[in-house]
Amino acid sequence: MTAPDLGDPAPGAGDPGAGDPAPGRQRVVWRPDQVLVQHDIPGLSDLRDDTTAGRLLLKSFVRAQLGLSLMCLTFALTVTASFPVIAAMVPSVSRITVGGVPLTLIVLGFAFYPVFLAVGWFYNRHARQLEVRFTSLVDPASRRPDA
Amino acid sequence: MPDAAVGAIAFVTLLTIMVGARGIRVARTPDDFMVAARQVPPALNAAAISGEYLSAASFLGIAGLVVVQGLGALWYSVGYTAGYLVLLLLVAAPLRRFGAYTIPDFAVGRLGSRGLRQTATALVLVIGWFYLLPQMKGAGITLQWVLGTPYWVGAATLGVVVSCNIAMGGMKGVTFVQCFQYWLKLCAIGIPALVLLIAAGHHSSPNLTPDRAAVFTRATVVTMTQATSFTLPHAAATTVTGLLDQRTYRDQGVRLCACRHVAGAGTRIGFAAGAPVPVSLAMEPSSGDSWDSPFLTSATSGAHPLAATYGVIIATFFGAIGLPHILVRFYTNPDGEAARRTTLIVVLLLSSFYLFPTVLAVLARTQAPQLYLSSDSDSIVLALPTVLLGGLPGELLAALVAAGAFAAFLSTSSGLLVSVAGALSHDLLKRGVTTFRWCAITAGAIATIAALLIDRFSLALLVGWAFAIAASSFCPLMVLGIWWRRLTRIGAMAGIVIGGGSCLAAIVSTMLGVSASGWGAVLTSQPASWTVPLAFGVMIVVSLLTQRTVPANVGQVMLRMHLPEALSRQAYRAAGQAPGAAGRSRGQR
Fold first, then answer.
1. pLDDT tens digit string along B348-367?
2. What is the distance in angstroms between the Cα of A102 and the nearest Cα belonging to chain B?
């Protein structure tokens, strides 16, 4: 699909804004790898130039990501780290056996790993969704091709 | 017997060298040497990360510790896996997007300070060397067990092989080596575990509830490899050959009382089926009724097992973020999304691996309890196959285990040596491939010599200490640096120095045996439970006090770390920069 500048005579085609023919008019040259650059993305330049609006936008996004991370972390830590406390307060817990196998062996040897995998899978899914949502908020046109 | 094992170890080592040598032709620029030119797909990268991560402690240390001290030692394997989950949640994607090569690079790129670079580099060296020691020790005892060579031969062999391999191939070769070694390690522990489990199932139904003192399930002759003092839970009739309690016997029946005994080196004591298993005094094993307790029970934490358990949990959960040889691997992911996918696969690969040390430990405890009397806890896994299975099958399995163990030492120490040598050449001396090569050789030599001094500490404990130092220095730096705009270089420096310094001081005082009992012993032998909060606290408070020194470019840096690739590619292309420039900038230097 890439057929870059086949006999493209346009000066400054790879550099929009540099060779504008006249103020108020923009020369549009279609090239497959340039299609994303040509439309104007105000949110993106706000972000890039660190304006107040851009900073606020980024801050809310980072906060959402951090919230997701901390939620998953709290869940994983609560599930794992509560076991010693419970066993210390209720000593009979460590005497429980399931079909001849001590509960401690089941929990420490096997049971935590699926929990870690589930939390990681949940996090990856939602972190990705947050990113997609943020991308389409900043750049609505990005919803088109592969986002 | 040792022939098969020697062959297997030699095979693994040669294969490592050959795959590494293939890297020489590929690696040309310093970029190639440092992070494999960033072209590694997630599944391959995840196997390489796991291969690098699963060290001597995972392969030999944890199972041995579980046999001797009880199920509470499984917290190490839970924590080593959870460390990657925490890494995924807190740093994986932003760190990859930031695009620095090493932790010192990250510190300088984020906070911009020369002093911070030197402090961080010094800490990379401390953690790296601390982590190299147990690998060398593992190699020492493996060769000692297989060949009967002195301890230093194994340590020196590993040092030479790894240093030369790194100096020749850099990391491009190592990525393939690491990936291969994950699968080798999984087979080398998985196959013996399953075969022995099936074999044990034929013999008897294993007693998995050892809340009473362990007994021999069949008549067993225990051979003391060194002079050992032990006790018996109750009296037993035995057959003794050799020196026992200052008397020499020659295949004579002796009734041993339930009291303390001293056996000379080479003494053989035959126990009948159903006789109690002796408890070694030097090995500080758990008493019979606490083997299934969920706490870490050892002599140093004896009085406060709960505090020791939480010390290990905090150190291992948060330590993985701060390990220098692990972070460098994240830059071989193409983007942040791939970094997250890679990390989740790593959690899966680690979870699968850690099922097997548990199986081996339970087998050793229930089927061959004599092992923890006559040998070092770290060699129990090596000895188990020949004890449980006689003849050729046992020998072959033992060879497989020895090869896997050697693969573990090779891969972890390769990764560590890359980052230690990288820190030395990249951050302290002048950059370049030649400097990197000499640094690799020097760093390997130093680690080998230091390893000769630490052979009395268990592998899991030593690795746990490296995690504790990382958790109380680099972990707060990375987490706050990524998520908190107001971090300042003075705050970061104070946190690293106070957190990491106090952790290191506590560990060194334990190694020297300063505080031997009570709270002091727990808080110095498992210091993470107080040094990690301390490091976070100091970093936050000092940063808040020095808000005027917040770097001016913090907005740009935060953007680079958190902006999804779909946007950052456009942002920087539209701004007229070369695509990918954001990911490749190396911090201000």
1. 999 999 999 999 988 888 77
2. 6
Residue B368 makes CB contacts below 8 A (sequence gap 6+) with B220, B384, B387, B388
> Which pLDDT tens digit goes with each residue over A28-44?
555 444 444 444 566 67
Is B350 within 8 Å of B78 (Cβ atoms)? no
List the 528-567 stretch of B: residues with Cβ below 8 A of A.
555-556, 558-559, 562-564, 566-567
Q: Measured between CB atoms, does A50 come within 8 Å of chain B?
A: yes
Which 8-state DSSP code applies to residue B376?
A: -
3-state SS class at A5: coil
* ipTM value greater than 0.90: no
Contact B89 A117 (CB under 8 A): no
Is the minimum CB–CB distance between B313 and chain A shorter than 8 Å? yes
Domains, in order of start, for chain B: 31-203+291-549 (1.20.1730.10), 220-284 (no CATH)
Residue B567 CA neighbour count, 13 Å, CB half:
26
CB-CB contact of B424 with B139 (8 Å): no
For residues B308-327, one letter each, b for 16 or more C-beta atoms within 10 angstroms of the residue's C-beta and e for the rest, the string is bbbbbbbbbbbbbbbbbbbb
Q: Strand pairing of A101-102 and B228-231?
A: unpaired
- Return the bridge partners of B42, or none: none
- The model carries a pTM of 0.82
By residue range, what is the domain housing residue A55? 42-142
Q: What sign for the dihedral angle of Cα B332, B441, B143, B375?
A: negative
